[in-house]
Design brief:
The complex is a heterodimer of chains A (513) and B (243). By secondary structure, chain A is of the alpha/beta class. Helices cover 59% and strands 14% of the residues of chain A. Chain A has 3 domains: 31-118, 3-Layer(aba) Sandwich (D-Maltodextrin-Binding Protein, domain 2); 124-283, 3-Layer(aba) Sandwich (D-Maltodextrin-Binding Protein, domain 2); 301-511, MetI-like (MetI-like fold). Chain A contains 18 helices and 12 strands. In chain A, strands 1, 2, 3, 4, 5, 6, 10, 11 and 12 form a 9-stranded mixed β-sheet that branches. In chain A, α5 packs across α7 (210-222), α12 (345-359) crosses α14 (381-407) and α14 packs across α16. Chain A is globular and about 90 Å long. Chain B is an alpha/beta fold and 243 residues long. Chain B has helices spanning 43-50, 75-80, 97-107, 113-126, 142-154, 172-187, 199-205, 223-228, 233-242, and strands at 3-14, 17-28, 32-36, 58-63, 66-67, 82-85, 160-164, 191-195, 208-213, 216-221. In chain B, α5 packs parallel to α6. Chain B is built from 9 helices and 10 strands. In chain B, the strands form 2 sheets. Chain B has a 6-stranded mixed β-sheet, with helices on both faces. Chain B has a 4-stranded antiparallel β-sheet with strand order 2-1-4-5, covered by helices on one side. In chain B, 37% of the residues lie in helices and 26% in strands. The chains are: A alpha/beta (513), B alpha/beta (243). The complex binds adenosine-5'-triphosphate and magnesium ion. Residues 14, 17, 19, 37, 39-45 of chain B line the site of adenosine-5'-triphosphate.
Chain lengths: 513, 243
């Protein structure tokens, strides 16, 4: 029996590997074809944009400008990506024709992707500023003061030289956080989107970049401690508005639209938006799998993103499961209590509303609402995720448990009550143990679903397994290896869990015979 | 004789369906009462009303002098004194025989675990099933299950035992052992109310027979009289069918 199981697992894994290999080959072939196709419609300047597929990072200045082309009579389409990296990847595989993005970011991308190039003709020229809540003019004035000083003493220049300067100054003289400053003016929490090199990006697990240094310098002037929160780009303004963060600094341009909801400081640097296209002159050299594995996991200990992310995924799942079971059981008891005795009608109604709302809305939306609207004062993202997923899973668990309780013969309940046990004792000693046995498979499925569901944690900038893989992806500009690795880790975890559940089920069944 | 149970004007409807329509009865200590009647006439409903497994629509039920339909009465305390045996046994399948018997005495705070274990063994020895103490219900025959269900109720030392067709779900060859145990209980003076189709048992063991029909008790007599001289045509008809 055991051996057969192992053999079938191995067969499954081999099959999977074969499918992946076959697919990679197929993909290579289609890529070649797409390349030829794309070559025919090469973009050489701004005037070539109409009628093309333009990629942008959602909510960035590039997005704003590309909007002007969208839906014109020549059929231009704009594809919005959560991250610049995703847009660049899409460009590489020929899904889009060009990417409009900030020049420094573009340079960083092109440096690592030899098959891309930046068009000489620039798209726009723009100023970057820090956003603050409209009501917070005091903070705005303070930051403006600090920026003024930094501009005058050359610090801003030093930072921009270090990240984006000419060959002879670039990477030479980094801004160093001042150590001898009294930081008794509290913390300054900065919302950013660390997918935007060289302004903000992950390096060895830390968020670094020109904006980070600039904000650090501002904090040094103001005697404050800098705290960085990573999130999606289009969440930054909301975070600042809702007080989740004090300021937003992420290469943001002042636009009319943004000014409606948020205020900006003076500009601290300026930038150009440029167009990235494929450089067909250079045929891309493909990395070998070994190089790719090294690049994605070993170099700079990048596997730690996955490890730490996986830890968070497990942590969130575990505690969410606990909340789910406890709360789900309570709800199920209220519901069955009402069904059987008509007790607690008000509470029952509340439970029903809760179930309807939770099961009728996507988990992502619930997570966002809990993070941005309800638990605004909670800064521990893991805690927020645990609560959100716990509340979510409770609704599903409640119905599973309820069906389990209903599936236990009513005679069991009557026997317990007729012996003098009260409702509670009957439920706990007689009904629930039998119900649990009936629903164990369904319950465990629920938790496997939950484990996978936590992959949306990235929406609140929490580094779970999926997000960990995403971060690697944004560093190496490679989709394959990190995504497959993430998928594999989920798969193996789920398989292990399922095997564990099978064992448990068998043991339980044995006890009845 | 001491009065144990009195039912006054008991009405019970399920939705629009009126099952019991003003049922009255008094039961004294030590009586063994058989309840007979056509299927669907409300025998089970009557029996289950006595320990409030069914809440009466109206009417009063006195047990040992207290009106148990009163909201302020702790029904769990009352049920401790009223054992009930079901047609389908309703043993707890996830517990051993011993645990089945010990559960209620311990949970209701009547006995400590050790006491309850001793009591369980005593009762099991009495019915000759001591060797099954560690077995699960699924390993037992129907007759064994029902006898264990009976002693499970007895473990609470009840003042009255309610039986709802205790032998109807049994294979014919197992009916005897269950009736035998019930006969013993009757002989020991246990007050019993037994809904049954076993006319032989009713005639032999019962001290009184109730014929339930049309939402009330139509005849209430000692077995000899009832079988020899049925007063209503409905009972005549019924007896003609079952005898
Ligand atoms: N929970 C319930 N909901 C609705 N109707 C019910 C319920 N319980 C019993 N009844 C109805 O009440 C009537 C009396 O049922 P009851 O079980 O008391 O009859 P009975 O005399 O015990 O019959 P049997 O000999 O078949 O056991 C039947 O018509 C039955 O369908
Ligand atoms: Mg019945």
């Amino acid at each position: 029996m055991k051996k057969k199981r192992i053999v079938s697992y191995i067969a499954a894994v081999i099959l999977l590997a074969a499918v992946i290999a076959g697919y990679s080959y197929y993909k290579g072939q289609t890529e070649k074809r797409q390349l030829e196709e794309a070559k025919k419609n090469e973009i050489t300047g701004v005037e070539d944009l109409p009628g093309r597929k333009i990629g942008v990072q959602m909510g960035t200045t590039g997005d704003t400008y590309a909007k002007d082309y969208e839906g014109d009579e020549s059929g231009t389409s704009v594809e919005r990506f959560n991250k610049g990296t995703d847009a660049v990847q899409a460009l590489k595989v020929g899904k889009i024709d060009c990417v409009i993005i900030d020049i420094l970011t573009a340079e960083a991308f092109v440096e690592k992707n030899k098959e891309l190039k930046i068009l000489e003709e620039e798209f726009t020229n723009e100023d970057y500023a820090i956003c603050v809540d409209k009501s917070n003019t005091e903070l705005k004035e303070k930051i403006n003061g600090a920026l003024q000083e930094l501009r005058e003493d050359g610090t801003l220049q030093q930072i921009s030289d270090y990240y984006t300067g000419a060959e002879e100054v670039k990477g030479k003289n980094p801004y160093r956080m001042m150590q001898d400053v009294k930081r008794d003016n509290g913390t300054l929490s900065m919302a950013t989107n660390a997918e935007f090199p060289p302004y903000e990006y992950f390096d060895k697990g830390e968020i670094v970049g020109a904006d980070v240094d600039m904000m650090q310098a501002v904090c040094d002037r103001l005697g404050m401690t800098l705290e960085i929160q990573n999130m999606e780009f289009d969440a930054i303004i909301t975070a600042v508005e809702s007080g989740k963060a004090d300021v937003g600094a992420a290469g943001m341009t002042v636009t009319e639209d943004r000014l409606k909801s948020i205020d900006f400081t003076d500009s601290y640097t300026n930038s150009k938006q440029v167009i990235i296209v494929k450089d067909f002159a250079l045929s891309a050299k493909k990395q070998s799998l070994r190089e790719s594995l090294y690049d994605n996991f070993i170099k700079d200990n990048r596997y730690e993103y996955l490890l730490k992310g996986f830890g968070n995924t497990l942590l969130i799942t575990l505690f969410a499961v606990l909340i789910g079971i406890l709360l789900g059981l309570l709800i199920a008891l209220v519901r069955t209590g009402y069904d059987r005795n008509g007790s607690m009608p008000v509470l029952n109604l509340l439970c029903r509303i809760y179930l309807t709302v939770v099961r009728g809305t996507p988990a992502v939306v619930q997570l966002l609402i809990i993070y941005y609207v309800i638990l605004t004062s909670v800064h521990n993202k893991i805690l927020v995720a645990v609560i959100a997923f716990g509340l979510n899973s409770a609704a599903y668990v409640a119905e599973v448990i309820r069906s389990g309780i209903m599936s236990v013969d009513i005679g069991q309940f009557e026997a317990g009550r007729s012996l003098g046990l009260n409702y509670h004792q009957t439920m706990v000693s007689i009904i629930i143990p039998q119900a649990v046995k009936n629903i164990l498979p369904a319950l465990c499925n629920e938790f496997i679903v939950l484990l996978k569901e936590t992959s949306i944690s990235g929406y609140i900038g929490l580094m779970d397994l999926t997000k960990g893989g995403d971060i690697i992806r944004s560093i190496t500009y490679e989709a394959y290896v990190p995504l497959y690795a993430v998928a594999l880790i989920y798969l193996v975890t789920v398989m292990l869990l399922s095997a564990g559940v099978n064992c448990l089920e068998k043991r339980l069944r044995k006890s009845e015979r | 004789m001491d009065e144990l149970i009195e039912v006054r004007d008991l009405y019970k409807s399920f939705g629009n369906h009126k099952v019991l329509k003003g049922l009255n009865i008094k039961v004294s200590k030590g009586e063994v009462i058989a309840v007979i009647g056509p299927s669907g006439c409300g025998k089970s409903t009557f029996l289950r009303s006595l320990n409030l497994l069914e809440r009466p629509t109206s009417g009063k039920i006195f047990f040992e002098g207290t009106d148990i339909t009163d909201e302020s009465v702790d029904i769990n305390k009352v049920r401790e004194k009223m054992g009930m045996v079901f047609q389908q046994f309703n043993l707890f399948p996830n517990m051993t025989v011993r645990e089945n018997i010990m559960l209620a005495p311990v949970k209701c705070g009547k006995m400590k675990a050790e006491e309850a274990a001793v009591k369980a063994e005593e009762l099991l020895a009495r019915i000759g099933l001591l060797d099954k103490a560690g077995a699960y219900p699924s390993q037992l025959s129907g007759g064994q299950k029902q006898r264990i269900a009976i002693i499970r109720a007895l473990a609470m030392n009840p003042d009255v035992m309610l039986f709802d067709e205790p032998t109807s779900a049994l294979d014919p060859e197992m009916v005897g052992e269950v009736l035998e145990l019930m006969r013993e209980l009757a002989a020991e003076g246990m007050t019993m109310i037994v809904v049954t189709h076993e006319m032989g048992f009713a005639r032999e063991v019962a001290s009184r027979i109730l014929f339930v029909n049309d939402g009330g008790i139509q005849e209430d007599n000692d077995p000899k009289e009832l079988f020899a001289n049925p007063k209503t045509p409905r009972l005549k008809e019924f007896l003609a069918k079952v005898l």
